[in-house]
Amino acid sequence: MNIPKAERPFPLEGYEIPETEEGMLEWGTVVERLTSARNYWICTMHPDGTPHARPVWGVVVDELLYVGGGAHTRWARNLMAHSKVGIHLEDGENGLIIEGSATYITDDTSIIEKTDAAYLEKYNIPHGPVWQIRPKKIIAWQDGLQSMTRWRFK
Hints:
Pnp Oxidase, Chain A
């Protein structure tokens, strides 16, 4: 994955987010936090446009997040109809939010073998077909909003 340059989000009045690059997070911090998280909150959209959020398991392979869930689940059916997705970690004090799109991987043997191995190591079960999360934007902070950092992907 081609990692874009880290930047500050636009200044928000009252949030005390610095305009300088000092104190911004490193990309490795994002990968480590995604890799070490046990649960991920996935946000999709019902066919009528209302939001739908659920916790799911996931693994990071080659710096991309993959989440698992049966094709029959509500959130998976939502993604099949509308691939836009939001993902965030459980910790609001040290936030990490992904906005992007999801692709259901059912026949790429290489990816499924890698994600199965990662699921076995992390959760002690293989998974099979998974959703690949392609970020459009990631925003993360740690130990206060002064570290808030954004990455915008093409």
